[in-house]
Amino acid sequence: MRKSKFFIAPLAGAIAVFVFLAWAFSQHGTLGLFRVNGEFHQYFIGAGVLGLVMLVLSGLYLWKRSRHNPRFPTLLTVFVSILSLFSMVVPSAAFVYTGDVFAAGIGDTPPQLLIADGSGSSGIPNLAVCFNTRSPTKNTLEWGLAGGALARSQESAASTSHVFMLRDLVPDSRYEYRVNGGAPAYFNSLPAGGKIRFAVGSDAHFGAADASRQASDAMLAQIADPANGYGMFFALGDLVEYGFTRGQWQEAFDSMASASATIPTRYLPGNHDTLFAGFGNFQDYCYPPGMDLQSGSPLWYRVDAGNVHFLCLDIEWSAESITVAQEAWLRAQLESIPAGDWKIVLCHGFFYASGSVSEGWPWYDNQETISRLGPLFEEFNVDLVFSGHAHQLELLRHAGVTYAVCGAFGGAPDEPRSYTSPASVWYENGSYGFADVSIDGNACTLTIRDPNGAPLKTISVVKG
């Protein structure tokens, strides 16, 4: 390149940096990543400074050129050349990696039984048998009451994403389903009233080098065991370490299917799940197109089981993802639920919690989420709020609402707390575990269990 046109190199570097930053901040969870994660905050600031420096260097070369004196010291020219190359290559490589540009599809995943938004004609959730295939295929599903005649559904076109809806289930009944005439899988539908039991866990972080796959698999075995009688399982986000890496979703579903093939399961979005291109992957794999939506969106929705109502929210880093639309939807749902019914909120990001300052961010009593939704919980007498995000186990109570932090489903435990929330009732750090919840009439028993099913703490919640 002639030296008189050398301004093009730093200009190209500046453009590459700013295009990457514009793309990154257009993604679903990047604002929260920038605000909360100190390491990435520095990366983004550094990238912005680099882009400005390249822009200034380009302008300086143009200024010199306008004065008919385009010559610069050789060492400076070499330095700018290297910096220009760096600023073009690194953002481009980051985009290719985090944007999942050349990644292959997720591959073949086992069938899972996912809970859909709303409920069927009998007042219990509709379900969907969902799975993926590496290549486009056409599949069939046979399903119905166990031991009875099975209905048969067949896909009309070949696809890599497969969704078969199971609507209007008979309450408290045993069902079976078969994919492509294979071995039967059995599950129990929920009762329309009376006792229900469900499990809650968060932050498995499949794909992370420091996550405990052994602990996750042990808890999944507890949830899947028919003797334990779980009717549903809610996974509250950060299922994978990097949502833009499809191989981690493959690993997660291969493991999760040990429970989710027979226990109706609902995945909620976490900040790691939706990183960059992970947002699209989460929607494609955890609430795939073809699943029914009755009240909400693929990110927030309501699940009804008789007089027990689950309000699943999109709260990832902090309050950034609590949109005006989501908050209005939540208020409308709470207003529509009879006062005597159970109201249970589930999300990834926490409200009240003990913790410590990490990378400049206080990982405890989140005043942003508390101020946004706490008054709604108290106004409408929400009974239980489950969350993760903090890798610990904790039970808290504030203004009549019971909060449970269940972020210990396999991800590396957080450091011990340096701040204790005034709302804290019980706290456990360094252990893995999940929540076991039984509701019978106006009484609820909430037990935190370790990976082998042993109880760590039990509390009671009484309705009314």
From TrEMBL:
Keyword Transmembrane helix: yes
Domain Calcineurin-like phosphoesterase: 196-392
Pfam families membership: Metallophos
Gene3D superfamilies according to UniProt: 3.60.21.10
Entry keywords, A to Z: Membrane, Signal, Transmembrane, Transmembrane helix
Domain of life from the UniProt record: Bacteria
TM stretches of this protein: 42-63, 75-97
GO molecular function, one term: metal ion binding
Protein name: Calcineurin-like phosphoesterase
Organism phylogeny: Bacteria, Bacillati, Chloroflexota, Dehalococcoidia, Dehalococcoidales
